[in-house]
Amino acid sequence: MATPGSSRYRVPLQPVRVEDRVHNSRFIASVGPAQSVETARAFIDEIRGEFPDATHHCYAFAIGPPGSARSVASSDDGEPGGTAGRPMLVALTNSGVGDVVAVVTRYFGGVKLGKGGLVRAYSGAVLHALRELRVGEHTVDVSLRVIVPYGLADAVRRAATRDGGAVVEESYAGEVTLTLRVPDDRADAVERAILDATSGTARIER
């Protein structure tokens, strides 16, 4: 699980869908990636369009790293307050997965489940989907521009790549300018390595 503020965290690779039945009600959980509020809303609208005759479309989403999501929302969509969207959101935020949206579509089966039963059904459907979810790693990269004399360019390249960076562009004039792509959580380490390798002569700009 990512720590708050980390630039690396688990995210869904593709949508997944599962179905649970509880006392004749169908709970269809759809979970997928959402890098923004707009993509989360689009996912929710897509599910609503796919199941237009469903009784409820409850949803939750958490945009950003798990534990410090920058945007969260949930909806009970007509179910008793706090029995659907909020438990779904808790399941998402405790999952260790970020940039994620979940919709649980319910077809009412004729038996009322009570508040506790609804909480268990909605959160359980999301947890079931999360168990089936394929995840990958999200990283945030930053660009560093490094200006050094010609004789130190190789030292910069070695220091950058050793600490997780990559040289994406080079230009040559009176000095060499190297543009690096570096994972955000490695940027400080790369800068220190470059300064050490060049005895402090490199000029570095983010």
Quick rundown:
With 206 residues, the chain is of the alpha+beta class. The protein folds into two domains: 8-138, Ribosomal Protein S5, domain 2, CATH 3.30.230; 140-205, 2-Layer Sandwich (Alpha-Beta Plaits).
What is the H-and-E element order?
A: EEEHEEHEHEEHEEHE
Q: Strand order within the widest sheet?
A: 2-3-6-4-5
Name the poorly predicted regions.
1-6
What is the CATH architecture descriptor of the largest domain? 2-Layer Sandwich
The rough form would be described as rod-shaped
Number of domains: 2
Kindly report the name of the CATH homologous superfamily of the largest domain.
Answer: Impact, N-terminal domain
Largest sheet: 5 strands, antiparallel
* Helical content (DSSP H or I, runs of 4+): 25-40%
CATH topology of the largest domain: Ribosomal Protein S5, domain 2
Name of the CATH class of the largest domain: Alpha Beta
Which class do the helix and strand fractions yield? alpha+beta
Report the sheet-strand fraction: 35-45%
Number of helices in the DSSP assignment: 5
Radius of gyration based on Cα positions: 24 Å
Mean pLDDT over all positions: 92
Number of E strands? 11
Distance between the termini: 28 Å
Task: Give the SSE layout.
Elements: E1 8-12, E2 16-22, E3 25-33, H1 37-50, E4 56-63, E5 71-75, H2 85-93, E6 100-107, H3 114-132, E7 135-139, E8 141-148, H4 153-162, E9 166-172, E10 176-183, H5 187-197, E11 203-205
Antiparallel strand pairs: 1-7, 2-3, 3-6, 4-5, 4-6, 8-10, 8-11, 9-10
